[in-house]
C-alpha cells in the first residue's frame, strides 16, 4: 500500500512538472510574440512620418514651380518624375507593407525594407543634387528617418537565420543569376559613360546637360547599391542566410527604381520632346522581370509571424 502511494505521488509530481514546463514554454512563446509585435510597431512608427513627409514634399514639388526653378529643364523633369513616382508608388508601398507587417506577413517586412532602402537612394539625390530650396530640411528629415529605419530593421533581424523564413525549393540559382546579370550590366553601362570622361579629365555630357557637379546616380550605384546587389546575388546562390533577405530586397529596389526611371522618362519626354520610348520599354521589361522573380521567391515564405 505504501509503495502504491509513493508511485502515485511520483506520477503526480511528474504531471505537475510537465504542466509547469508546458506553461513555461507557452509563456516564452507569448513573450516572443510580444517582442516581435513591438518590433513591428516601431517599423510602423518610422513609416508614418516618412510617408506623410514624402507626400508633402512630392506634392509641393509637383504643384509649386519655385521648388525646381534653379534646375535645368532636364534635371527638373527628372525631379518631377521622381515626385510622381513617390506619390503613386513609394508612399503606397510603404503604407501597405507597414500595415501587413502588423499582421505578421513576412513578405511585407522584406518589401518594406527594400522600399525604404530605395527611398534612401532617392533622398540622397534630393538632399545633395537639387539646388537648395525651402524643402531642403524636409529632404534631410526624410533621409535621416529612412536611414535609421533601415538601421533599426537590420539591428533587430540580423540574428535571424533567414533560410528558416522559407520553405524548401527557393529558386536561389535563377534569382541569384538575374541579380548578377543586372548588377554587372549596370556597372558596365555606367562605366561606359563615366570612364572615358574620367580618363580624359572631362565632364560627361549628361552631367553638363543636367547642370550638376557630378552624377549622383553613378556615385550611389558604384559605391553602394550595385556592390550590394552583387553581394546579395552571390550570397543567395551559395544559399547563405543573408542572401535570403538581401536578394528579394534588391529585387524590390530594382523594381521601384525601374518605376522611378519610367516616370522621369515620361515627364522628360513631355517637357523636352525627347524620344525616351526605348528607355521606357527597356525599364518596363526590367520591372516585369523583377516582379516575376520577386513573386517566385516570396511565394516560398512560410506564412506565420516570425
- How many helical stretches? 9
Radius of gyration: 25 Å
* Main sheet makeup: none
Strand segment count = 0
Explained architecture:
By secondary structure, this protein is mainly α. It has one domain. Helix content is 80%, strand content 0%. It has nine helices and no strands. Helix 1 packs antiparallel against helix 4, helix 5 runs antiparallel to helix 7 and helix 5 crosses helix 8.
Task: Provide the descriptors you would attach to this structure in a database record.
306 residues; mainly alpha
Topology at a glance:
Layout: H1 2-63, H2 73-101, H3 106-129, H4 136-157, H5 172-200, H6 205-210, H7 216-237, H8 243-272, H9 277-298
Helix pairs in contact: 1-2, 1-4, 2-3, 2-8, 3-4, 3-8, 5-7, 5-8, 5-9, 7-8, 8-9
In short:
The protein is mostly helical and 306 residues long. The protein has one domain. It contains nine helices and no strands.
